[in-house]
Automatic annotation (TrEMBL):
Domain Aminotransferase class I/classII large residue range list: 21-383
Organism: Cognaticolwellia beringensis
Claim: Cytoplasm is one of the keywords in the record: no
Pfam families: Aminotran_1_2
Entry's Gene Ontology cellular component terms: cytoplasm
Superkingdom of this protein's organism: Bacteria
Name of this chain's protein: Aminotransferase
Length: 387
């Protein structure tokens, strides 16, 4: 894979550690996973629940996921259209595995897959390893909304799938109901599939609703929906996620999943099933928890020379630094980490290599992660306000 570099998230975290900078680059929480989960996983391990789970995942976890989905997204649907955990959900080793397997399930040599830039970095290598080709569509600043006429123009007889990501990493934009309506009519008209990366599904702000594909049964019929417990329960290192898909797609997905990992870590499945059942408030309170952190960071940066872009979801905020430096975003982030003491993510590595020179000419934007303690956010902002 000659075009694949070390992930920018790895690169910036190594640099942050080396220079002891405040690390607002790679997205992970500074605070711990809830004690309830730690107690339950410890208990599962000490009770000897340490062998393989069923390949698809523990039935009690599959069922709890379906119940959460019913509560969050499917109260308006008749029972027959609601997600069936046992048939339609598979537990994966992180959303990364779910995305990987969904892509291997769908994409055949020379198939085209539409992705939106800036894009999370695992999509394109997975498409290429399946022999597919990514068709890139740029999301335009400052709102990073999808230009649907542009999408329709890129569809041809080779197009197989569209990968969407809402709430969107790195921009913090979210898709609306009308975006999903348009997506649905396009995929039906052109006989396409959807991979919907919804790992930040529980983090939308200012009363905005997350438009999950799981709300729309007709769209779901052509979709793989991917989520991550790492984001939801502050345990990114557990690498626990899942994929939901209709019966026939899920049957194919499971054939591949069984030969990628067979199953995911059993004690974590036991603990998460109990967490979903007994502590549902953790999820319903997550949006306000992160909105408060976003607002701490926004307030602390209000006297800085950065221009703040809107963050409607995720735990990321974009800053435009054109008033501060003429360096390109990668150089700026290296300088910021080494000389200033705050690490951030440049956006250009999330665009195709051939677009980066022109991207650099027009864009001076970096990403900060606000999944940090308020003190850390204030300390970082104080430093950034001096630039
Ligand atoms: N998709 C997006 C948009 C992400 O931000 C992440 C986490 N970095 C993932 C997928 C992967 O999630 P996980 O850590 O559960 O594999
Ligand atoms: N999702 C995290 C981010 O966007 C990084 C995950 C990773 O390091 N692969 O920062």
């Amino acid at each position: 894979m000659p075009n694949v570099e070390t992930s920018i998230f790895t690169e910036m975290s190594i640099l942050a550690n080396q220079y002891q900078a405040i690390n607002l680059s790679q997205g992970f929480p500074e605070f711990d996973t809830p004690n309830f989960l730690k107690d339950k996983i410890n208990q599962a391990i000490s009770e000897g629940k340490n062998q393989y789970s069923p390949s698809n995942g523990l039935p009690e976890l599959l069922t709890q996921i379906a119940e959460m989905v019913h509560r969050q997204y499917q109260t308006h649907l008749p029972d027959a259209q609601k997600l069936n955990g046992l048939n339609n959900v598979t537990i994966t080793s992180g959303a990364t595995e779910a995305l990987w397997v969904a892509i291997q399930t769908l994409v055949r040599p020379n198939d085209e897959v539409i992705i939106f830039d800036p894009a999370y970095d695992s999509y394109e290598p997975a498409v290429e390893l399946a022999g597919g080709i990514c068709r890139h569509i740029t999301l335009d600043a400052p709102n990073y909304a999808i230009n649907w006429p542009r999408v329709e123009q890129s569809i041809n007889e080779k197009t197989r799938a569209i990968i969407i990501n809402s709430p969107h990493n790195p921009t913090g934009s979210i898709l609306s109901e009308s975006d999903l309506d348009t997506l649905q009519s396009l995929v039906e008209k052109h006989n396409l599939y959807v991979i919907s990366d919804e790992v930040y599904e529980h983090m939308t702000f200012d009363g905005l609703r997350h438009e999950s594909v799981l709300r729309y049964p007709q769209l779901f019929n052509r979709s793989f929906v991917v989520s991550s417990f790492g984001k939801t329960f502050h345990c990114t290192g557990w690498k626990m996620g899942y994929c939901a898909a209709p019966n026939e797609l899920m049957a194919e997905f499971r054939k591949i999943h069984q030969y990628v990992t067979f199953c995911s870590f059993t004690p974590a499945q036991i603990a998460i099933a109990q967490m979903l059942k007994e502590q549902p408030a953790h999820i319903t309170e997550l949006a306000s928890f992160y909105q408060q952190k976003r607002d701490v960071l926004i307030n602390a940066l209000k006297d800085s020379r950065f221009t703040l872009l809107p963050s409607k979801g995720t735990y990321f905020l974009l800053l435009d630094y054109s008033a501060i430096s003429t360096l390109n975003d990668r150089e700026f982030c290296q300088w910021l980490t080494k000389e200033v003491g705050v690490a951030a993510i440049p956006l250009s590595p999330l665009y195709p290599v051939e677009q980066r020179p022109s991207y650099h000419k027009n864009n001076k934007v970096i990403r900060l992660c606000f999944a940090k303690n308020d003190d850390t956010l204030r300390k970082a902002a104080e430093i950034l306000c001096q630039l």
